Amino acid sequence: MAASTPRRAPVGDGRIRDAERTRNRLLDAALDEFAGRGYAGARVSAIADRAGVNKQLISYYFGGKQGLYRALLLSWEETEEELRRAGTSLSEVALGYLRRALRDPRGTRLALWQALNDRPPIDEAEAERERAGVRDEQADLRLNQQAGELADDLDLAATQLAITGMVIAPIVLPDLAAALFDEPVDSAAFESRYSDTLTKIIERLRDTAVETDEPPPPLQPNP
């Protein structure tokens, strides 16, 4: 019987592709675990099992659990940047976020764990990067306002918070949403109906009348 030929280790581009696939599998598995259990409850062994790799590779590629979590946040920030740049209007950007949340709610659930302060400690550089991200989002809204998509009298911070709340509401309150719409939030019918109303609400923001203390002009008699 002929001896089997030993499998060669990948070299060059093949090795790079294998490393990228392994990293991506670990990031996807980590998103499952962190979104479902939070940072404190997540286990690196469970992440490795989900990814189908040895858990030592988490340390090799990311330096451990904390490094993996931070890499996941950076990946999500890149996704957010793509979503913001993909839309040509404020309503399109909001719909992009909504569709992403409905079809893959893990990112929203991860953000909810962060809101409960379930995350590793961050240094000043990371804190500043997060603040810079918020400033960028406000700058985008300011451009929307200058383009006439938002009334001049709207507070942009409050507007961003309100739109964010509308986008994540189906993920935060799925049972209430399903009861109100008589459809599960992961159904095409719910997405279509909710998207339509969300678009209309955002478009109404450009029609907000600016209140003034000046009396209305007198009616002119018909000639």
UniProtKB/TrEMBL annotation:
Pfam family for this entry, one: TetR_N
GO molecular function: DNA binding
Residues in HTH tetR-type domain copies: 20-80
Superkingdom of the source species: Bacteria
UniProt KW keywords: DNA-binding
Presence of keyword 4Fe-4S: no
Residue ranges flagged as DNA-binding region: 43-62
Organism per entry: Microlunatus soli
Membrane-spanning segments: none
Single biological process term from Gene Ontology: regulation of DNA-templated transcription
InterPro entries: Homeodomain-like_sf, HTH-type_TetR-like_transc_reg, HTH_TetR, Tet_transcr_reg_TetR-rel_C_sf
Name of the protein in question: DNA-binding transcriptional regulator, AcrR family
